[in-house]
Design a protein that fits this description.
Length: about 350
């Protein structure tokens, strides 16, 4: 189990340190875990001039799975686009071909009041959003800003090929088969041809999965339905841009982005695992960040890349137990619970494990 660890910027190193303690604990219990550190993002730019340097590329390509913290921060905001930390993130996703981004939005009963939505709307919520991660308008060519007829024009290209849609649709149907056999595909086929093809191909793939109840929804309606009645959804699948937006929206149904893990998988279940949130420069270095999203990302790693379901469930049970004990980092703190730091949260998870 060869793991590359890329802590990144901001709170990245703080939250990843707690997740590594979990890996160490599992290793002492006998899992053959080996890991090595690399740089990615702003820190990598400072050290090497590149947000995804050659040495990190080698490390990531040789690993079975990658654990990533987060990248970016205001000190790198004025760099040219190719050197920006986010380019490192897009670069590693693209190079590894991790096209299937799985983002569960689960409301823990202990955090029922953390959401800004009414408890009856979100209680028991358990959605899996599957976002295509290496295509769409984020990567389409041509792209740029240029002068036409004396004014500046910015443009990007939304593009999906049949094979790109087919492979993500398969992941979505397989995921639906393992859950409640209900899949909603989100597009904007009334306006965008690329997503007309999306709907056509998803429908075709669906013929191989007659047991799955497939529905289609336009993205603007999906955005609305997610806050109106989110429990109507089980598995959702959509393209890169819509998935980016809808998965952030869904994350807030659960109260805190500090709780939400993600997995990004290639066709062989090699995966990149990271919390859904960013580098949180506002709280970096203060021992305040919630490490649970990163720790839960380790659980996803064990489940999807290493098929260690028992170990994954052990981690998830430890997290639930810590929440049940009333221990909370600042982002999920409420009256009647005990506010603790990043490292104390790590201590509590380790103890529960
Ligand atoms: P962010 O997710 O870093 O922070 C948004 C808010 O959530 C902040 O108030 C932050 O303090 C809070 N927050 C985030 N994670 C938390 C945690 N684990 N515990 C407690 N509170 C947490 O998003 P923002 O502020 O838009 O971006 C900050 C930087 O992160 C930017 O440079 C951005 O480009 C980068 N970013 C990186 C991502 C990645 O590496 N995957 C994803 C999103 C943003
Ligand atoms: Mg995003």
């Amino acid at each position: 189990m060869k793991i590359a660890i890329l802590p990144g910027d901001g709170i990245g190193p703080e939250i990843v340190a707690q997740a590594v303690r979990v890996l160490d604990a599992l290793r002492s219990d006998g899992l053959p875990i080996e890991y090595e550190y690399g740089v990615l993002g702003g820190g990598a730019v400072d050290a090497t001039g590149s947000p995804y340097p050659e040495a990190t590329q080698k490390l990531a390509q040789a690993a079975d799975a990658i654990l990533l913290g987060a990248v970016g921060g205001p000190q790198w905001d004025n760099l040219p686009r190719e050197q920006r930390p986010e380019r490192g993130l897009l670069g590693i996703r693209k190079q590894l071909g991790v096209f299937a981004n799985l983002r569960p939005a689960v409301l823990y009963p202990e955090l029922a009041n953390a959401s800004t939505l009414k408890p009856e709307v979100v209680s028991g919520l358990d959605i899996m959003i599957i976002r295509e991660l290496v295509g769409d308008i984020y990567f389409g060519e041509p792209r740029g800003i240029e002068t036409r007829n004396g004014e500046r024009v910015g443009y990007n290209t939304m593009v999906y090929s049949e094979s790109e849609i087919r492979r993500i649709a398969k992941v979505a149907f397989e995921t639906a088969m393992r859950r409640n056999r209900k899949l909603c595909s989100v597009d904007k086929m009334n306006v965008l041809e690329a997503t007309q093809l999306w709907r056509d191909v998803v429908t075709e793939v669906g013929k191989d999965y007659p047991q799955v109840e497939l529905s289609h929804m336009l993205v603007d309606n999906a955005a609305m339905q997610l806050v109106r009645n989110p429990k109507q959804f089980d598995v959702m699948v959509t393209g890169n841009m819509f998935g980016d937006i809808l998965s952030d929206e869904a994350s807030m149904l659960t109260g805190s982005i500090g709780m939400l893990p993600s997995a990004s998988l290639d066709a062989n279940n090699k995966g990149l695992y990271e919390p859904c949130h960013g580098s949180a420069p506002d709280i970096a270095g203060k021992n305040l960040a919630n490490p649970l999203a990163t720790i839960l990302s380790v659980a996803m790693m064990l489940r999807y890349s290493f098929a260690k379901e028992d170990a994954a469930q052990r981690i998830e049970a430890a997290v639930k137990s810590v929440l049940a004990q009333g221990l909370r980092t600042a982002d999920i703190f409420e009256a009647g619970t005990e506010k603790i730091s990043t490292t104390q949260m790590g201590d509590a998870v380790l103890a529960a494990l």
